[in-house]
Every structure is written in structure tokens, then in C-alpha cells.
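During the reporting period the student researcher (J.K.) took over the structure-prediction task from the postdoctoral fellow and processed the backlog of single-chain submissions. One of the processed entries is reproduced below for the supervisory committee.
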Amino acid sequence: MARRELPAALQILAAGGLATVVAVLLGFDKPIGAPLFAITTLEFVCARHRRAIAVFFFGLGFGLAIAAVASGYRSFDRIVLDLVVGVAVAMVVAFLTTPRNATRQVNASLEPLLNTLTVNVRTIAGALRTRDAESARGAVYALVDTENDLRRLNEVLLATRRSAAITLWTTGQDLDAYAATAREIGYAVRNIRVMARHAWWGVLHGGEPVPVALPPMLESLADGVGLLRDELRRDGTLRVAQPQLVSAARWIDVMRNERLGLASAAVAADADAAVLNLLIATGIPLAKADALLNHGKAEAALTERRLETALAA
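J.K. obtained the following C-alpha cells:
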């Protein structure tokens, strides 16, 4: 069973209390320094935001000053003992109260979001083929509900951020990379929601002709999102989804060669932005992802060939 992370306040109380108990058991008179060092160290290791080394030492120095006034240090040895006890207790508390599978928690929170995208983008593609405005309307409103999934994702990211350092030390997994993937997927969700509204209200309800390339573009996008979901579920390689996402981008280019109405052009632009976000989520740097979407340029074709070669390797 996954280990749940204690709230920050409880972690701090646990570290401070345990450091005090250890200091008393060791016979320290006025055990003030040890819990202060424990709390400072815990906040450095388990902070929700990055702490610079300078901030860490500032905290230690501030704690030392308070402890010196409160307990009247008379020797350097006592300072070192308080520091050792505080840091040791903080590391133990951090290790015992943070989950070992923080990356799995992030991936699990992404799965329902990607499921909703896959199903409803495919539904909109079918609705465009048959000009079924009611079906597209249902998919649009289902995508609106992804706001709850995005909120839960942000809560998970905020909670697991406190275990980022422990996760890196114990598993070698960089939680920041997973957080970057989640952030780009969140951007893609918002772009796809706008795209879906334009497809329903602008294209279907507004009576615009459906571009021939629009339904297959959406189907390729849904396939790419599905592959991304499957790879996240199995902790696999996200680059598996890249060719399918590039395929969706190709259909966007075909769309732009057609005579597009106002809403259809907006759909193409929103889809372009969503594909860019998803390519970045798979690990492609922004410059390369952007080059893949600028297919009229020779260097874009070269970049794509390099990507295909890398994927085949």
C-alpha cells in the first residue's frame, strides 16, 4: 500500500518533538537547539519549493542564535551535538513520513484526465464526420469537467513536492521532470477544451463546412493522448507517443491547405498549441517541438527525420 505523506504541520511537530525527546534522553540541558535544527533541516529537505543552500544555512544560523540565547551555549561541542541530533531526526522523519512512490501518484492523477481527453476528442471527431452537434455538445461539457481533475492534479503536485528530495535520493527519479510533464499536459487540456468548443459551436452549430482533414486530425490526437496515458500507466517511455502526435500535426497542415472558415481556423490553431504542449510533455525541448510544427521549413523536415531515426534506434 502506498505510504501517505503527513501534512507539513504534523511533519514539523514530529521532527521537533522527536528531537526534543532524543535530546532529553541524551541528557541535554535545555534542549532548544536540537528541535530548531530538526525543523530547519526538515523544511530544507521537504519544502514545497526549492530552498537554496544559502537559505538553509541562514535558517541554521538563525536557529543557532535563538538556541544560544535560550539555552546559554558554553561550548562548541554542544552546538555540534544539537546540530547532529536535529539533522539526524529530521532525515528520519522525512524518510518515514513521505511516500516512496511520488511519481506514481503524479501518473495516477494524470490517468483520468488523459482518459477523458482520449474518449471525448474521439467523440468530437465522430460528431464532425456525421455533423452530430448534440454528440459534440456532450463531449464539450464532459471536457469542462476536467477542471476538477486538473485541480486534483495540482493538489497532488503540491503534496508530492515535499517528497521530491527523498524521491530523488531513494529512487533516482526526478520529480521535477514528472511535474513538468504534468504541467504541459494541463496546458494541452485547456487548449483542447477551447478547440472542442470551437468545433461544436463554431463549426457544427455555426454551419461551417467540416474540413476534410479535421476528423482524422482529432483521431490522431486522441490516439497520441491514449499512447501517452498507457506509457504513464506502465512507467514507460513517453517518446512512444511522439510519432502519433506528429501525425496529428501533419493533419493540421493538410487542414491549412483547405479553405477554412473562422471557427475551423481557430480549431487548427488550438490543436496546434495542444500538440506542441503534448510533444513537450513527452520530453522534446520547446525549440525542437516548435520546429516539428513548422513543417514548411527545411529544417523542420530535418528535425523530423532525426526524431524518426532516434525513435527507430
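The committee noted the following: Residues 8-97 form one domain.
J.K. will present the remaining backlog at the next meeting.
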